[in-house]
Write a structure and sequence with these properties.
Blueprint (H helix, E strand, L loop, with lengths): L1 H19 L7 E3 L5 E2 L7 E3 L16 H9 L3 H23 L6 H16 L3
Antiparallel strand pairs: 1-2, 1-3
């Protein structure tokens, strides 16, 4: 019976806090084993804060390591050419984006040739 009354009292207190808007007023801090505060305290930690979701299973994983591993296997002169193509591709794409749309195939020729060379070198 005592446990039931305690549960009902706790439920009523939470309901009252939600109704008053106090429950969502800001962060709470745990300052000791059984002590909580609405202000930061020495040695305290914030409780109730939503933890950021760090994994996004639908996002494309970064390819930096794979690219670096592929490049490490290339000869130094090929690697230098790939690095030059990296910047060249970005510049050509930026120049193409500035042109009025729709672009003509003749406008895309240099970019397509650079992409083909990039693929042929296995960059």
């Amino acid at each position: 019976m005592g446990r039931r009354v305690g549960s009902l009292a706790a439920l009523a207190a939470v309901g009252w806090l939600v109704w008053c808007g106090v429950a969502d007023a800001g962060p709470s801090y745990k300052c000791g084993a059984h002590t909580y505060s609405d202000r930061p305290c020495t040695g305290g930690r914030e409780v109730g804060a939503a933890k950021p979701h760090r994994l996004d299973h639908h996002a494309t994983p970064p390819q930096d390591r794979a690219k670096l591993a592929r490049r490490a296997e290339l000869k130094p002169e090929v690697r230098e050419r790939c690095e030059a193509l990296d910047t060249q591709l970005v510049e050509q794409q930026a120049a193409l984006d500035k042109l009025p749309q729709p672009v003509q195939p003749s406008d895309e020729r240099e970019l397509v040739q650079s992409k083909l060379k990039y693929h042929q070198l296995r960059c």
